[in-house]
Design goal:
Rossmann fold; Helix Hairpins; Heat Shock Protein 90; 5-stranded mixed β-sheet; 18 strands; elongated
């Protein structure tokens, strides 16, 4: 039996049999018009009923203007009902929701009306530019449309913008069309069986690659969630510890005051310990706030003229009581002014976290702070005589949430040295550590003075 065909009017495509379902992939307004204008011009010339369901980048007015330039008597043909232009919202949607039953019924009704009026058949097109999600639902609709075209005197062209069609969507589109039409080296080409299969295989490979990347990303998110849970657990523990210690010191002072058992020296010592716990709690909270404020970005910097030596002496003075409680002899060598333009708050955070780190990991050992100038650079050094850091851990100590100590040497959130590095980098400086197991650790921060 002879298969009846109808010309498409597109060079390189030729004729298509009735009942054919074609998808066209276009790249912009010119591509779309270059195919659809001759497509409908040929249909009108061959006494076919035509229906153009429009969407961006060509609306109803654009489509009429473009086709009128190719078909001078277009308005006459439209007046007698040979061609219609319909906005996609009035064809595919019920409100904002895809209504596949409405669209499918519309195609059937137009073909039946065309044949009743004596036209040779129906030539229709719809543009899926408006589709932003629900690719699965639209693919199901395309599958139903493809099945319904068998034995019908209608050719149906579905247009898809290449840059708005995800790879998974492309694969589903191809599965439910007889042919794909693409532009190669300026000429429209129909992609048939073997090529379609190869295209599907390539898209399947791309889809598998995307799925692999999604899986990798899922694993990364799981790891991040695990880190978050670990951090929240550590935060709960570390914040409770100084809080409970402060409460115990205060409770013991209240109890002792009631019975008059404490000497002045004992009272002073307990107040010092309560004060040290409050300071530790405050430092932990400040570190948390600093992380939440900056996130992964570097902190903001407000520069002004600062004497680094004077700033260091102020911080060291604040640490006198905590150092005494930790059994550390705290010394500072910063006799000469070292002037530069830095952020005084960030300098304070740097030295505060370096000293807190030394008191945590080098309890009972001397701690030395040195401020020097070397030409156009200022150098801040904090040196302890603690257990030291193995070479393989020296880079890691500056990472967020890093914990490289063991037993009682572990503490805090592992944020202090990370904050030191963030602040130093934000002010154009560097931080480095020199250490070896059993030989203490020396942290050196350098800044340009300008």
């Amino acid at each position: 039996m002879e298969i009846q065909v109808t010309p498409t009017g597109i060079p390189g495509i030729g004729a298509l049999s009735w009942g054919t379902h074609v998808c066209q992939f276009y790249d912009g307004r010119e591509d779309l018009a270059d195919y659809l204008v001759p497509y409908f011009k040929t249909g009108l010339e061959h006494d076919e009923y035509c229906l153009w369901v429009t969407a961006d980048p060509l609306n109803v007015e654009d489509a009429q203007t473009l086709l009128r330039a190719a078909v001078p008597d277009l308005d006459t043909r439209a007046g007698r009902g040979q061609i219609e232009f319909v906005d996609y919202r009035n064809w595919y949607l019920d409100g904002s929701r895809l209504d596949p039953d409405r669209a499918l019924a519309g195609w059937r009704e137009r073909e039946q009306r065309a044949l009743q009026r004596g036209y040779a058949g129906a030539r229709v097109t719809g543009n899926a530019f408006w589709l932003e999600s629900s690719w699965r639902s639209f693919a199901d609709y395309e599958a139903r449309l493809n099945e319904s075209l068998a034995g019908r005197r209608m050719i149906c062209l579905c247009s898809y913008a290449v840059d708005r069609c995800p790879s998974v969507g492309l694969l589903e589109v191809l599965e439910h069309h007889d042919h794909a039409v693409v532009r190669r080296r300026g000429t429209w080409t129909i992609v048939e069986s073997a090529s379609v299969k190869a295209t599907k295989e390539e898209l399947s490979r791309i889809n598998e690659e995307l799925e692999r990347r999604v899986q990798e990303r899922t694993e990364e998110l799981r790891a991040a969630l695990a880190i978050r849970e670990q951090f929240l657990s550590a935060a709960s523990h570390e914040l409770k510890t100084p809080l409970m210690a402060t409460q115990l010191y205060i409770d013991s002072l209240v109890e002792a005051a009631e019975v008059g058992r404490l000497s002045e020296e004992e009272r002073r010592q307990r107040l010092e310990r309560a004060s040290a716990s409050c300071r530790r709690l405050g430092q932990l909270i400040e570190n948390l706030f600093d992380v939440s404020r900056t996130g992964p970005a570097l902190p903001s910097v407000e520069r002004e003229q600062v004497d680094l030596a004077a700033r260091a002496r102020e911080v060291v003075e604040r640490f006198a009581a905590p150092a005494r409680l930790a059994g550390c002899e705290l010394a500072i060598h910063a006799d000469r002014p070292v002037i530069g333009r830095w952020d005084p708050m960030r300098l304070d955070q740097i030295l505060t976290n370096l000293l807190a780190n030394a008191l945590t990991h080098a309890r009972g050992t001397p701690i030395e702070v040195v401020v020097e100038e070397h030409g156009d650079r200022a150098v801040l050094t904090v040196r302890d005589s603690g257990p030291g850091i193995a070479s393989e851990n020296q880079a890691r100590v500056f990472e967020k949430f890093a914990q490289v100590g063991a037993g009682p040497a572990r503490g805090g959130f592992g944020l202090g040295l990370w904050i030191v590095r963030q602040n130093a980098t934000a002010m154009g400086g560097t931080v480095a550590v020199e250490s070896a197991p059993g030989r203490g650790a020396t942290f050196r921060v350098e800044f340009l003075r300008a």
